[in-house]
Amino acid sequence: MKDKTTAAILAIVLGGIGIHKFYLGETGAGIIYLIFACTGIPYFIAFIEFIIYLTMSDAQFNAKYNRHQSGRPMMSQPMPALESSREKAATLGEMKKLYDSGVITAEEYEEKRRKILDSI
Q1: Angstrom distance (rounded) from CA 104 to CA 46
Q2: In which band, very low, low, confident or very high, does the pLDDT at 118 lie, cut at 50, 70 and 90?
Q3: HSE on the CB side for 39, CA within 13 Å?
């Protein structure tokens, strides 16, 4: 589990070479920091990120950087597949209401229903 304070300290001390990005699992950004380290720009950005990490709430930090631990979603975070299924079920319900009220035809309803069900 990544720690907000550790990320902030790495950003202020070694942020110019992107160590905090590697720590947070943002390897691509870390490589970009390494490439541009000689320009000084990453040092400035890392200082701003240091301030952002310190002012960010723990909940915001965890939602962004600690979503997956040991390859599994944290229990406080909704599972994407389950959330997606709920959204699709709600969409099906709304479409049924539109069909029942005569806003869409039976063919339109059936076509859209099949697309949604096939994607589950």
Answers
A1: 53
A2: confident
A3: 9
- Find how far residue 114's CA is from the centre of its chain: 29
Statement: the pTM of the whole predicted model exceeds 0.85: no
CA max distance for the chain: 66
User: Do 23 and 33 form a contact (C-beta atoms < 8 A)?
Assistant: no
d(C-alpha 16, C-alpha 43), whole Å: 4
Q: Are 83 and 67 in contact (CB under 8 A)?
A: no
